[in-house]
Amino acid sequence: QSFADFNDLSWIWLTGRAVRLSTNVQDDRWVIVNKRQVGFYRVNYDVRNWYLIIDALVQNWASVHRLNRAQLLDDSFELARSNRLDMEVCLDLMEYLRDELEYPPWT
After folding, report:
1. pTM exceeds cut of 0.70
2. What is the SS3 assignment for 44?
3. For the CA atoms of 4, 64, 38, 18, what is the dihedral angle to 10 degrees?
4. Taking CA atoms, which of 5, 33, 47, 94 is between 20 and 30 Å from 79?
5. Could you tell me if 58 and 95 are in contact, meaning their C-beta atoms sit under 8 angstroms apart?
6. GO: which molecular function terms (predicted)?
C-alpha cells in the first residue's frame, strides 16, 4: 500500500487555480491527495496513478478510506465531464463498486 495513512492530513496551500506536485514515489506505488476529502477542490492524477489506485481498489477496496473512495469517484466523473480525464478511467474505476459495502462512495 502506498501512503495508506489516511489519518495524516498534511496541508499544502493552494496558491493558484492549479498546483502540480512532484513526488518521490516508486513507479508501482499509488498516491492519493486530499486525504479524507478535507479540502474543497478536485484532484486529477496522471493515468498511471489512476490505474494504480483502481488496481488497489479492485484488490482490496478497504485499503482506501471510504471518503477518498467517494472523492475518487466524484472527481473522476467531474474531470471527465470537463474533458480533463478520459471517461474510460471513470468506468474502469466503477468496476470496484461491485464489492463496495459503505454508503459514501454510492452518494
Report:
1. yes
2. coil
3. 80
4. 5
5. yes
6. metalloaminopeptidase activity; peptide binding; zinc ion binding
